[in-house]
């Protein structure tokens, strides 16, 4: 059984969908506007899969235009 919620995307702020699957014990948050995806275990909160365009892991610096055009 899936429970669906309409939420705001934590990446872009547009409307997104959050599905809580009681069968697989996962929570899936996805946004069709920015392609954000987060799949977590509903029991532990551990991340199973994640994709967030435009966000970098902490400790990474963005590439500047000058370093790309070499």
Provide structural commentary.
The chain is mostly beta strands and 70 residues long. It has one domain (2-68). Helices cover 6% and strands 41% of the residues. The protein has 1 helix and 5 strands, in the order E-E-E-E-E-H. It has one helix spanning 65-68, and strands at 2-8, 15-21, 26-30, 37-41, 47-51. The chain has a 5-stranded antiparallel β-sheet with strand order 1-2-3-4-5, with no helix packed on it. Strand 4 (37-41) and strand 5 form a beta hairpin. The longest helix is centred in the C-terminal third of the chain and has 4 residues, at 65-68. The protein is flat and about 30 Å long.
Q: What topology does this entry show?
A:
Layout: E1 2-8, E2 15-21, E3 26-30, E4 37-41, E5 47-51, H1 65-68
Antiparallel strand pairs: 1-2, 2-3, 3-4, 4-5
């Amino acid at each position: 059984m899936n429970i669906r919620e309409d939420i705001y995307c934590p990446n872009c702020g547009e409307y997104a969908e959050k599905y809580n699957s009681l069968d697989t014990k996962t929570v899936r948050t996805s946004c069709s506007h920015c392609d954000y995806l987060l799949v977590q275990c509903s029991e532990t909160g551990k991340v199973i899969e994640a994709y967030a365009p435009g966000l970098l892991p902490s400790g990474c610096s963005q590439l500047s235009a000058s370093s790309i055009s070499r």
